[in-house]
Amino acid sequence: METVVxxxxxxxxxxxxxxxxxxxxxxxxxxxxADPVVYKLVRVEGDGRLVPATDDEIMEVGNLLAxxxxxxxxxxxxxxxxxxxxxxxxxxxSEGLSQSENTEVDAGKSNTHVEYIEEMLQKVKQDESHLLxxxxxxxxxxxxxxxxxxxDQNDKMPGIDEKLQSEIPLQGNDTxxxxxxxxxxxxHSGSVGECSNPSNELMEGQSSASARPFGRExxxxxxxxxxxxxAMGLTNSCDVLASSFIIKDNKLLSKGKEESCNNxxxxxxxxxxVGAVNVECKDSSTNHSSQMEEHQTASVERQRNSSTDxxxxxxxxxxxxxxxxxxxxxxxxxxxxxxxxxxxESSGKSIPSAKNSGxxxxxxxxxxxxxxxxxxxxxxxVMRLDSLGGSGVQVPYVSRVRRSRPRKNVMALMExxxxxxxxxxxxxxxxxxxxxxxxxxxSGNIVLKARSTVEKMQHPFTVEPExxxxxxxxxxxxxGQNMEPKHVDPSGDTxxxxxxxxxxxxxxxxxxxxxxxxxxxxxxxxxxVSRYGAGRWSEIKRLAFAxxxxxxxxxxxxxxxxxxxxxxxxxxxDKRINSRxxxxxxxxxxxxxxxxxxxxxxxxxxPSNLSSTSKLAGSTGRNNVHETRSSGYL
DNA sequence: CTTAGGG
DNA sequence: CCCTAAG
Length: 634
What we know:
By secondary structure, the protein is mainly α. The protein has two domains: 2-315 and 322-458, no CATH class; 517-634, Serum Albumin, Chain A, Domain 1. Helices cover 69% and strands 3% of the residues. The strands form two sheets. It has a three-stranded antiparallel sheet with strand order 1-2-3. The protein is globular, with a radius of gyration of 25 Å. The structure holds a DNA duplex.
């Protein structure tokens, strides 16, 4: 699993090498640590859950498959990085990787995904049973690797923002600190669903679950299997989904087994789901509706899980069936959506519920028929049943649609032809999404969106020194910065789904998704304006505001305009408006407005002073007259 | 492409 | 927020 993640590293490979040293030398500096962190992060993702691979990653994978050398190379890098950073035994990891490599190749040739999967499942089961029996949380090689990474992260983390820390600790803690503990945690979360550290719990559960089963007893063979799977997944989109799933499944499976042993009834999936739900609930106290949905979803999943578990227990032979079920079972689309909503809410504390509801409604629409959703804690994959393969080839499509503005045309096409891969591909390319082989699968219809998670994941770990890196890194960095203002900008983080396409009369489709501006965003905006001056939106966006990938310079401008308007309106008239605003639930705190006003005034003054042209005043809009007045007041 | 303005 | 015009 880790390997897969690594793939991304290809470009990063350099970073890794250099980064590792840096990290070792200075843990404290976030930036330096960032590179290594990223690397780790990637891995973690792979371990923890399928990370929606970016295009790059996929590409990498493909390359890997094609060339053994490449893979080897990657492996080597990984091992080194891990070793230097964590100081953990890397031999194991390297071995595993190398093996995996071989495995991958084989798999690719043979194309017997199903078989592999079955084997994997069975093995996993066995392993799990083993683990349970042993009950000893020893660290096996594979596991160790993971741990090492985690540990590194932890070490580095301190330097990073609070948020980052909070998130990271989860992974790091569970693994390294105490395996048994993590286990208990998992169970706990599953049954109880603690609210205290939802995200953490989830993370822990996954990582721990995944780590244990794998690491521990997994023999070389197991590793190979895993690798094969991974490879397979990479190779084919369908497989990818499966593979991801499988991976997860493995973890999940293992987890489930544990639980089953412990609690017989509960299933791993259910636990996960529950945890997620809990998290969401915690985050968003506001949304009742969302909670409701979540609960429902959770319950559904639970049922499914339970059934699955039963099957599992009863017959190992049906492993593959089970797997399929599992894959499907995670019908988590809802959860994802919910999470999104939730995140939004949390971030936009004051955001009107109406919006959320609207979003929710919309989301369902976007997914025509979410047959199943597989979701790791962090990432959710939505799968749609393939019309062709009614049997159910589900392809996980992870696309991070940034909403940046994928040509409307594309959107329209997509809407009309969800299956139209070409369009999708283009879009994907733009967005960075991971699409496996589109051409191959006619069957692979499916466009699903998995998005927010990825971004979320990224931000905590990745830190980027400069802008050069891929988009994702930038985002993450920004987010990190953003986070500070309000513990989180969950909203900011990512929910982009709410894309509603409104058909315009002519056939044009307009998609308007409203993304509420969070306080932190506004603050950033204001700061940016104050620093760089209004009008230099691109600059502001890049520097101050870099964090949010959505929010174009235009958006910034618009928002600023609105802010100005608001501030102006507010100030002069006096209290009445103020109170009214407040009542309505103004998201923008007075102080900010004040500041906005001030800034506007100052900026406007500068130009205005030079020449007070009527036009200037008018165009600028905000100012001259008003400002003068306002300034006088001030 | 970025900015500004209108819808 | 989206779209368009202008530099």
